[in-house]
Design goal:
single chain; alpha/beta; Rossmann fold; 9-stranded mixed sheet; two-stranded antiparallel ribbon; 13 strands; nucleus
């Protein structure tokens, strides 16, 4: 080879574009190298193409589209780390020669020649450790029976603690266990734990880094919303008759009302009931059969249109009132029905004000006041009024809402004098306002449990050890798979979720025990009155219609509904002191 030819070849090599070195710390993405090769590719000698004004050679419209279009993510991998399973060949165009991807892809060594990276966090003497069980948690040897209620309660408690402290790992482990042992279609303990699991999952979805725990729930629990049923009047009437949970209070209250209103020509009933006046038809029937000349019945209720607490009704209170008036007419009883716009959220302030206005009308009216009995019937509704655990009411606000004694007689004013403190709640305010109305009798029926704690674990324990009762009793009166059973357990599930998953004003299920209600009533200047023997006998007769596990016991002046010896609901009657 002559010196001239060698020099000519060296000059040709120098004119070729230089590829980046393989050890470059910032490797060029494959799509950029691909584009660079195409842009600097010299044309074939037998083509008639000429350079453009910019010095680049034209290429086909297809390649232009490829280069100018957004590239998929897998093409953004650094070129030096990309190795296709099969060689990729570029289809030649009139201006580009055929290129193989292997022409500009570095050859990686076989996998068996690649040295694994050392683990900087492990050494030869290091022993992998499993996460220790929390203090007080049963060991794996003790967890032989996951269906045991005590075991499920401990799992739920530790899961709640983990969610509160944002311990995602521990919470995920416990939720996984609960998800496998708490079947929504299992026995009463499993269904109870399943409802609490659902509530904890809903709470985790709102708590810090534990939001990811929603994925732990299986597909059937992915939708955390609870489908509560809206009842027709007939459905709700049949529904509350299935169990003594409400009938116990209905029977005891009606017996006490009949005795307290004996001799009155007008009976004004203020019904604050969770069950939408389902107690009233039985009371109307009892009044019609007890009196030859039936008294006029005035029924006043608080509007529940915006109330989303189960059980829910599928018709308005105006329609409900029309049905009750027609029923009373069929029993030869004259009845008036009034709906007052008021809500538990403000302590039924609108209702109290309406009752005050009515009393003032009778005071200043020229005609004599009729012999009217004022009955306040509170059936499982007062525990929705905010209590001290939510917030305290300023003293100035309390004073503005208290009963105005100047509009009544001196005796009523003296009896309605109450002390107001800065720590009073709307719940206490409501009872003191009732005392200012000087009612004939106040009936208070509610669940005997304590769900007011601001501590999640305490609240969970209390709810778990109370709400097992409705799950245990449902097997005695509703078959598996029935619609009524689904409605019944959906309402319980709603209650559990409200107690566990919500806080602040959204947590409305703030049930108090009987002892605390007794103290509140006494502080509001009421005194308890015992139920008569006839009233107790009537309640016992009602219980005989249900399963053998239901019972009745007396405590002081009050009576309690029990299930297998455990307190469920209390009923009490109160007179102004």
């Amino acid at each position: 080879m002559t010196r001239e030819r060698v020099s000519q070849k060296l000059n040709c090599l120098k004119s070729l574009p230089q590829c980046p070195p393989l050890h470059d710390k910032t490797p060029t993405p494959i799509y950029k190298q691909f584009a660079g090769r195409l842009l600097h590719m010299p044309p074939k000698s037998n083509t008639s193409s000429a350079p453009t004004a910019t010095g680049h050679f034209p290429f086909s419209p297809l390649l232009s589209l490829i280069l100018l279009s957004p590239l998929p993510n897998f093409l953004l991998i650094p070129f030096n780390s990309f190795q296709p399973h099969h060689p990729i060949t570029i289809i030649p165009t009139p201006h580009t020669p055929a290129l193989s991807m292997t022409q500009f892809t570095p050859q990686l060594p076989p996998f068996h020649q690649i040295t694994p990276l050392p683990n900087p966090t492990m050494n030869k003497n290091q022993i992998p450790r499993t996460r220790p069980w929390p203090a007080g948690f049963p060991t794996s040897k003790a967890l032989t029976n996951f269906g045991d209620a005590n075991c499920m309660e401990q799992l739920l408690v530790h899961c709640a603690n983990a969610i509160q402290t944002n311990d995602v790992t521990l919470a995920q482990q416990i939720l996984w266990v609960l998800n496998n042992i708490a079947s929504p279609d299992g026995d009463s303990n499993q269904r109870l734990a399943s409802s609490f699991l659902r509530a904890l999952t809903a709470r985790a979805a709102q708590t810090g880094t534990c939001k990811m725990l929603v994925a732990v729930a299986d597909h059937s629990r992915t939708n955390l919303s609870i489908d509560t049923h809206k009842f027709s009047v007939i459905e709700l009437a049949n529904f509350v008759d299935l169990t003594p949970w409400h009938r116990f209070g209905f029977t005891a209250a009606n017996a006490a009302v009949l005795e307290a209103t004996e001799g009155f020509s007008v009976i004004h009933i203020v019904d604050l009931s969770l069950t939408h006046c389902m107690q009233i038809p039985t009371l109307i029937d009892a009044i019609a059969s007890r009196h030859e000349v039936t008294p006029l019945i005035k029924l006043t209720v608080a509007d529940a249109t915006c109330r989303d607490i189960p059980p829910m009704l599928d018709l308005s209170y105006d329609e409900l009132g029309a049905k009750l008036i027609n029923f009373a007419r069929s029993r030869n009883v004259v009845m008036e029905f009034r709906v007052v716009s008021s809500t538990y959220q403000d302590g039924f302030a609108g209702l109290i004000e309406q009752l005050r206005v009515q009393q003032q009308h009778f005071v200043y009216a020229a005609e004599p006041r009729p012999c009217e009995a004022l009955v306040i019937n509170c059936h499982m509704m007062l525990h929705y009024i905010p209590d001290e655990s939510l917030h305290a009411i300023p003293e100035t606000d309390l004073a503005s809402l208290l009963y105005d004694s100047s509009s009544s007689s001196a005796a009523a004013a003296a009896s309605s004098a109450v002390s107001v403190t800065s720590t009073s709640s709307l719940r206490s305010l409501f009872l003191k306002s009732l005392r200012g109305l000087d009612p004939t009798v106040v009936i208070l029926v509610d669940e005997d449990a304590d769900l007011t704690s601001n501590n999640l674990v305490c609240r969970l324990r209390s709810a778990f050890n109370y709400l097992w009762i409705p799950y245990d009793t449902v097997d005695t009166f509703l078959p598996r798979g029935s619609k009524q059973r689904q409605w019944y357990e959906a309402d319980i599930c709603w209650k559990i979720e409200n107690v566990i998953a919500h806080e602040g004003i959204e947590r409305v299920e703030r049930v108090e025990p009987k002892s605390r209600w007794e103290q509140r009533m006494k502080n509001a200047n009421f005194q308890g009155v015992a139920f008569s023997e006839d009233s107790v006998a009537e309640v016992k007769g009602m219980l005989d219609e249900h399963a053998a596990g239901w019972g009745l016991k007396r405590e002081d002046e009050h009576i309690l509904l029990t299930w297998k010896g455990h307190n469920v609901v209390f009923a009490s009657a109160w007179l102004p002191a």
